[in-house]
UniProtKB/TrEMBL annotation:
Gene3D superfamilies named in the record: 3.30.70.360, Zn peptidases
Species of origin: Lentzea xinjiangensis
GO terms, molecular function: hydrolase activity
SUPFAM superfamilies listed in its UniProt record: Zn-dependent exopeptidases
Descriptive protein name: Acetylornithine deacetylase/Succinyl-diaminopimelate desuccinylase
Stored InterPro entries: Peptidase_M20, Peptidase_M20A
Length: 406
């Protein structure tokens, strides 16, 4: 990375860009988009789109429930940007997201390593993409003349939004290429497929009680804790499952009659989605029956056992999203190693390219979500790995151009 790239990344890292699903703090995504667009103009990019999403994008049936009750001010602070260099076809597209998780962490650079929220996910890769394209333009004047390059810089990737108001409307507006690279940490291996995920919310809505007479209430903690273990045992053999948040309350001197358990399940296509959905529904029924049988003769939990089925419900917080099927991408085979076949895929905004005619799509980026502390304290990105990614981006653009967009 040359000096201006480092300055650009530090500037982006200095801007808090976690969206309203992550934090109530001020969101600086408009400023981040402007900063990135200004830097891209020096490479020759023009702004093809810069706007907040239209409210209609949240009225679709597959939009996650976390977005059902947001107001117009929610979307107003989460713009997305499309930059274009050269013709619209043939074109290669790079997708980066400038929104981050919370909490914000201040930027830093020690000469070899960047620190700060978004360093690896995904402000660092965004700057590396720009550097790689600049190098491709310098190496071959056909880049941006005979073939085009698009950059989507989006909001709405984090927080459970699943790209429904960021990447999806851009793809549906035609802002994609013959080759599409989604920049997420993959250890510089390209992933030519993506799972989608569904989220089940198991709710218990019963009566509270005081700690002196716990038998008078419904104990949602015991019921949901039992169901969490039952579902974990039953669903885990069927695929990638995350038994996630369980919440009833925080005090020691009461019985909580209400609570929620979240279970997230990945799938790689419509058939596996149906299988996981049915397994969740069946597992809940058998879990409730087993709980009632086990605790009906225990005085403290008799009422909970007797009413378990009546006070427990299943709601899908997220369901119906597409998965990106596996595909062959010879151009990338010639440049970078592929994702190991025995490792599971993961979910990202690349799912919205599923079914787009003529579009080859892969996930590729530097670092690792775990090893680089993305979504955790101390997120970082090493200059050396960002530079390697820049070189890969350069090679992708050059090979795409010299192959005539094939």
């Amino acid at each position: 990375m040359i000096g201006p790239d480092r300055d650009l990344l530090l500037r982006l890292l200095s801007l808090p860009t976690a969206g309203p699903l992550e934090t109530t703090a001020e969101v600086h995504l408009w400023e981040a988009m402007d900063v990135f667009a200004s830097a891209a103009a020096g490479v020759g990019f023009r702004v093809a789109h810069l706007a907040a999403p239209e409210p209609a994008v949240l009225r679709r049936p597959d939009v996650p429930s976390v977005l059902h009750d947001v107001g117009p001010e929610f979307l107003a602070c989460q713009p997305s940007l499309v930059l274009r260099l050269g013709p619209s076809e043939p074109a290669v597209m790079f997708n980066v997201h400038l929104d981050t998780v919370a909490p914000f962490e201040p930027e830093g650079f020690d000469g070899t390593r960047f620190h700060g929220r978004g360093a690896i996910d995904a402000k660092g890769p965004a700057v590396a993409v720009l550097a790689g394209i600049r190098a491709a333009v310098a190496a071959d004047p056909a880049v941006g003349r005979d073939t085009g390059v698009l950059i989507q810089a989006v909001s709405g990737e984090e927080g459970g939004a699943m790209g429904t108001f960021g990447t999806r409307p851009l793809v549906e507006a035609g802002f994609h290429g013959g080759l599409n690279i989604f920049c997420e940490p993959t250890g510089l291996r390209y992933l030519p497929r993506c799972t989608a995920a569904m989220t089940a919310s198991v709710r218990v809505d019963g009566d509270d009680a005081i700690d002196d007479e716990p038998h008078r209430g419904h104990n949602a903690t015991v019921l949901l804790g039992f169901l969490a273990q039952h579902l974990a045992a039953g669903l885990a053999p069927r695929g990638q499952v995350c038994v996630a948040g369980l919440h009833t309350g925080r005090l020691h001197n009461r019985v909580y009659g209400s609570g929620e358990l979240l279970v997230n399940m990945a799938y790689d296509g419509a058939e596996s989605a149906r299988t996981m959905s049915a397994a969740m529904e069946t597992g809940l029924r058998t879990g409730l029956a087993e709980f009632s049988e086990r605790f009906r003769d225990v005085p403290l939990f008799h009422r909970t056992a007797a009413d378990a089925a009546a006070i427990t419900s299943l709601r899908w917080a997220k369901r119906g999203l597409p998965a990106l099927p596996a595909q062959e991408i010879p151009l990338l085979d010639a440049i970078v190693p592929g994702w190991p076949a025995d490792q599971p895929a993961f979910t990202c905004d690349a799912i919205w390219l599923a079914g787009v005619p003529g579009a080859r799509t892969a996930v590729l980026g530097p670092g690792s979500l775990g090893a680089n502390n993305a979504h955790a304290r101390g997120e970082f990105a090493d200059v050396a790995e960002l530079d390697r990614f820049s070189g890969i981006v350069r090679d992708i653009v050059l090979r795409f151009t010299r192959n005539g967009g094939a």
